[in-house]
Amino acid sequence: MDEQASHNNNSKEKAGSSICEVLQILGAKWAFLVLEELLNGPQRFNQLQRNLSIVKTQSLTDTLRHLEKNGLVHRKVYPTVPVNVEYSLTEKGTDFQVALKEMDKWVQKWGNTMQAQEPTD
Predict the structure, then answer these.
(1) β-strand 73-78 against 84-89: which pairing, if any?
(2) What gap in Å lies between CA 18 and CA 55, rounded to an integer?
């Protein structure tokens, strides 16, 4: 029995550390929105900013840098005047689409239940 309990605790610790690792990579406040937007294809900064109008300029910059540092976003600089910068998903970033779809399924099933459970006065 002790061996089984130890195995269960180790599994929970590994699952917890996996979730922590994901949150460290994607923990930037707007990371999910940026990744979802880039699934539509490569975009320049101003285009991303227009499409994600709720995200402030500095926050978008910080999020893109964070995602680039973690290998989910590729930043390509075009030597034009003025300089154009285009952002796209790497293979690692594109692969996250599966997780986003699962999250969307979860929201479709459970997203409105919190509102339905709130007491009305």
Answers:
(1) antiparallel
(2) 28
pTM score: 0.74
Bridge-based pairing state of the strands 43-44 and 73-78: unpaired
At residue 118, φ and ψ (nearest 5 deg) are: -65, 135
Structure tokens at 112: 């409105």
Contact 72, 90 (CB under 8 A): yes
Strand partners, 75: 87
* Helical segments of 1-121, H only: 2-26, 31-38, 45-51, 57-69, 91-95, 97-110, 113-117
Q: Which of 107, 73, 102 is nearest to 90 (CA)?
A: 73
Q: Say if CB 100 and CB 36 are below 8 A apart.
A: yes
* Amino acid letter, 60: L
d(CA 39, CA 60): 16
pLDDT digits over 62-112, tens only? 999 999 999 999 999 999 999 999 999 999 999 999 988 898 899 999 987
